Amino acid sequence: MNRKFLLACAGFVLMAGPALAEEPIVGTWKRPTGTLIQYASCGADKYCGTVLTGEYKGKSIGEMSGKGGSYKGQVNKLDEGKTYNGKASVSGNTLSLSGCVLGGLICKSESLTRQ
Question: Ranges for the DUF2147 domain (predicted)?
């Protein structure tokens, strides 16, 4: 009986492993404006964002590096033509992005919802 239980537990761990290892920033996110963006892996611990809908469809919104729900990188604010040094964090179905330019003098933040 113990052997069957251990085998069942081992099987569960092996099946759950890939899901637990997936980076939470990967996926499609909806901005408050309704625009959809997608983050996808583009290297080791590196994630590239692309606009999926709207005026800037197909444009890059920057790159983030990190894991475990905490990321750093650059965010392109396409409507302003500015690039912000940014941070992102994922908690459940919410992606919080924040970024600053001019040494932290101008900062912006936004919350996106996983789709």
Answer: 63-114
Which residue range forms the structural domain that includes residue 79? 27-114
d(CA 61, CA 29): 12
The pLDDT tens digits of the residues spanning 82-107 come to 889 999 999 999 999 998 887 888 89
Q: Please spell the DSSP secondary structure of 10-56, one letter per residue.
A: HHHHHHHHHHHHS-TT-EEEE-TTS-EEEEEE-STTEEEEEE-SSTT
Helix (H) or strand (E) holding 73: strand 70-77
CATH of the domain at 105: 2.40.128.520
Residue 98, burial from CB neighbour count under 10 angstroms (0-12, 13-18, 19+)? middle
Query: pLDDT value at position 18?
Result: 40
Q: Which residues of the chain have pLDDT under 70?
A: 1-23
Torsion on CA atoms 82, 108, 53, 56, rounded to nearest 10: -10
Domain membership flag for residue 2? no
In a domain, 83, yes or no: yes
